[in-house]
Every structure is written in structure tokens, then in C-alpha cells.
Amino acid sequence: MNNVALITGINGQDGSYLAEFLLEKGYEVHGLVRRHSISVTSRIDHLIHSPYNNVKFFLHYADTTDSSGLMRLMAEIKPTEVYNLAAQSHVGISFEVPEYTADATGMSTLKLLEAIRINGGPCRFYQASTSELFGGLPETAPQSEKTPFYPKSPYGVAKLYSYWITVNYRESYNMFTCNGILFNHESPRRGENFVTRKITLAIANILAGKQEKLSLGNMNAKRDWGFAGDYVEGMWLMLQQDKPGDYVLSTNETHTVREFVEAAFQEVGITVRWEGTGVNEKGYDSRTGRLLVDVNPEFYRPAEVEFLWGDCSKAEKELNWKRKVDFKGLVAMMMDADMQAVVGVGCEEFKNRK
Known about the structure:
The chain is an alpha/beta fold and 354 residues long.
């Protein structure tokens, strides 16, 4: 039987890595993209223009908020696996567009599940859940599949609906549906308004003379950061099991935003010296005294998620999954990519020039 995958959000970070992964395994891959007046396929252009195009890689204009379009595509494509990665996925922005987030991140999952139930046939379904479901309560860490949910943003609440409707369709209609509760996963393909990419890109711009300093919000927030390329393998493994289930994917360690900043600057040979606390905290180049980092209260969220630290022991045991890229390797990968793009040289060459 041919493996046919449908990926929503295929032009996002996770979608691009997942498409590569599945194509390498011989899948026929279909992706949904929304129509824009400008190109939004930069992360998958190498696939569009590769030998896979017109052979095993196909794109379809669609929107996951459009149930009629989903019904039609499900009947036409007849996928064996569906990966629902599409969402309004920025936590901070979800406070500004809560209604749209509820529709695009929450209700769209129901519409996709209905399209599968009615027109999809024997199809396995993966739902991209999130560590934001937990709310970051320190007393619950490390957070596993058994940890109570307590979302603290419109994004988290919308994802909570998606999580439970996925479980409900599994129990109500005997569908093979899985939730992947993924902790923060990053890469050089991460959007520029996410904090990790904001940090690495800002450092490259500072060194290129294009930016004065890096401004951030809560420096004490702790996150469990992994590499997106590792996590898409976990998504696939969930749909290869005999029985459907829900799994946490994480690195089993946590780091503050401040630690990420320090590690990123270290990659280019700069040690940060910190002064002050809270909104008055500032980071200086320990050698030159130049101001590199400050705190802007505008970047604080209305309800802050302070502490995320995942326990992925179930996935390690049942899926035989484990992350391959560690925290330092992730920071180095992202920092090097942005240095190459902005400065024109990688981190090691830059340090050797100093």
C-alpha cells in the first residue's frame, strides 16, 4: 500500500522538516498552503524545485478554517496519514487576535477531523499539541502526559480544545488519532518573531552593524528547547504504532531565556556580563563594556508561562524516540545559520577573524 501523507502548515518550520523526512521514506506528500499575495514557501522551495516535484510532492491551496475545502481535498487525496501542523502558533500574538486564534488553532482541528471521518477512509491523524497546555506551573515539573493542563494564553486554550477533540474522535469513532505534546522545538527555519530566532538573528545583526542591541521580555522564563528536525521523527513514529496514543516530546532539561542569550553570544566569542534585575536588567560585553541586551516590559505576556520542562520517558520507551541535538548544538546551529546569512561567515570563522 502506498503511503500518502497530507500536511497542513507544510510551509512552516515543522512542516518543511516533516515533508523532507517523509519524502526520504518514499511517501507521496501533499501539503496545504494558504493563498498569499507574496511567496510564503521559502522553507520548502528546495522541495518544490527538486526532482520530487510533480512526482511525489504536491501543494494545494486551502485553508483549515474552510470545512468544504477540507472535505473536497480529503476525498481527492485519500491520505493514509494526516499531520495537522497548521495554526496561529505565536503565543504572544494570540493575545492580540484571540478570536482568530480560537478559529485557526482550535475549531480548524474539528473541521479536519470531520473531513477525515466523512471522506478520509482508514486514515491516521496526528495533532500538533503543545507544552503551552501545561501553563508552566513549577510544582508540576517535569511535565508528562499525566500532568494536569492549565493553559495561560488564547493559543494554549485553543490547543486544549484541539487536544480533547482529537481524543474524543478517537474514543467516539474508533479513529487512529494521536496528540504530540511537543515542548519548544527550534531550528534555523524558526520564524523571526519567536524568541530563539529573535536572539540569534539580532546577534548577527549587531555584529554586522545593522542593529544596536537586543531587547527581550522575561529573562527568567524557562523552556525545554529541542531541534525541530528531531521532533518530526517523533510525529511519524506515533502514527506507526499498533494503537493510537498521546505523547510528550521534549529534551528532559530546561534553560532560561538568559541562558540561551549567553550561549548564543558565546558562539561568536562574546561573554555577557549582567547587571540589574527585572526590567532594569542589562547585558554588557564583558570585554568592551558595550550594551548588548536590555529588557522591554512590552514583551511581557499578560499571563506568563514561567517554567516548562518535559518528561518524555513514555515516548522514549514506547516509540524508541530520543532527541539527537542537545541544547548547545541547537544554539550553535541557529547562530551559525544567521551569521552565514547576515554577516557572510560562520561563527568559527568570525571568531578567528577577531
